[in-house]
Design brief:
By secondary structure, the protein is of the alpha+beta class. It has helices spanning 6-15, 21-43, 65-78, 144-147, 216-226, 245-255, 276-289, 320-334; strands spanning 52-56, 62-64, 84-89, 96-97, 107-115, 126-134, 156-162, 166-171, 176-182, 187-192, 203-205, 238-239, 258-261, 293-295, 315-318. Bound molecules: 2,5-anhydro-1,6-di-O-phosphono-D-mannitol (AHM) and magnesium ion. Magnesium ion binds next to β5.
């Protein structure tokens, strides 16, 4: 069977009128940057890239050397192509402008350069997440407010998971497709067109150690899953938690499941752990395009009007019917 490279897939998407040449270039450049990150991640200790960078990011989190390196790789790869008006990163407090030496384009790129930081030094899967928005008409020097668009405005979203194999999962709003990196060829090859998430599941992903901090609807929902066959749900559930959102979401895209990072009482100033603009929104777009659902417990994540670049949000995503059940618990509790 003839292999379809990412380059060919994107050309065909352009011919089909799904993307234009600039967006194609943008995705190709992000994919190229992800190959460089994959290379650095896979070198591990031999590349001298493990351990703390000795700095902190805007979230108050200690940065790993690979967090910093991946951020640099993505910015350097994207700033010269003429396709971006600017980019924003989990590792940067403010949006990063395009240097004046380079032409500017119409797109805004948002990313979490290396998600799953706690897994970097222990050789467990990590990943890159990205989201593409259009820069508002007439804006040449975008500031944070220009990035504050709901997830429904995304033109493309994707993630790369650096696991046993490196895979890029992409949507431009016409289904969700997976590509596997052929390291010898140096190209991403289409390995699954139109991924579909099973609507029902018996598998959930949540950090159970936070249970004592959860709000009542969250607790009763999980208690009912734990009650298994003889409980109200009438079936046994299995649990998985990689603590890398990309890896957990990738498993759910592959075989179904529900991923939850709820709001809790640990820190009242933080409505959940995950970031809306470059974690929850792109993952929601990818999941919805694969037939899944994604809410913050009450409403569709992609319809939330963002108020801050680094805003956090509770996340319930995956198999459609299960996300509906979990969301119903929260809606009923709110009433
Ligand atoms: P990060 O962006 O600092 O890596 O944090 C996000 C990660 C997600 O990948 C993962 O789902 C979650 O944090 C794990 O959190 P916890 O360590 O609380 O289980
Ligand atoms: Mg992250």
């Amino acid at each position: 069977m003839k292999q379809v490279s990412l380059a060919r897939f994107l050309i065909e998407a352009q011919r089909a009128g799904q993307i234009n040449a600039d967006l194609r270039l943008l995705i190709e450049i992000v994919a190229r940057a992800c190959k460089a990150i994959s290379h650095a991640v896979s070198k591990g200790e031999l590349g001298g890239v493990l351990g703390d960078a000795g700095t902190g990011n805007i979230q108050g989190e200690a940065q790993k050397k690979l967090d910093v390196l991946s951020n640099e790789i993505l910015i350097e790869a994207n700033e010269w192509g003429g396709h971006l008006a600017g980019c924003a990163s989990e590792e940067e407090e403010h949006p990063v402008p395009i240097p004046n030496a380079f032409p500017k384009g119409n797109y805004l790129l948002l990313f979490d350069p290396l998600d799953g930081s706690s897994n970097i030094d222990v050789n467990i899967s990590v990943g890159t997440i990205f989201s593409v928005l259009r820069c508002p008409e007439g804006v040449t020097e975008p500031t944070a407010e220009h990035y504050l668009q709901p997830g429904t405005a995304q033109l493309a979203a994707g993630y790369t998971v650096y696991g046993p194999s490196t895979m890029l999962v992409l949507t431009v709003g016409h289904g969700t497709h997976a590509f596997t990196l052929d390291r010898e060829l140096g190209s991403f090859i289409l390995t699954e067109r139109d991924m579909r998430i099973p609507e029902d599941t018996k598998e959930f992903a949540i950090n159970m150690s936070n249970m004592r901090h959860w709000y009542p609807p969250m607790r009763s929902y999980i208690e009912e899953l734990l009650a298994g066959k003889t409980g109200p749900r009438g079936k046994d559930f299995n649990m998985r938690w990689v603590a890398s959102m990309v890896a957990d979401v990738h498993r759910i895209l592959s075989r179904g499941g529900i991923f939850i990072y709820p709001r809790d009482t640990k820190d009242a100033s933080k409505p959940g752990k995950l970031r809306l603009m470059y974690e929850a929104n792109p993952m929601s777009f990818i999941v919805e395009q694969a037939g899944g659902a994604s809410t913050n417990g009450l409403q569709r994540i992609m319809e939330i009007q963002p108020e801050e670049l680094h805003q956090r949000v509770p996340v319930f995503l995956g198999s459609k019917n299960e996300v509906e059940v979990a969301t119903r618990y929260h809606r009923e509790a709110q009433r």
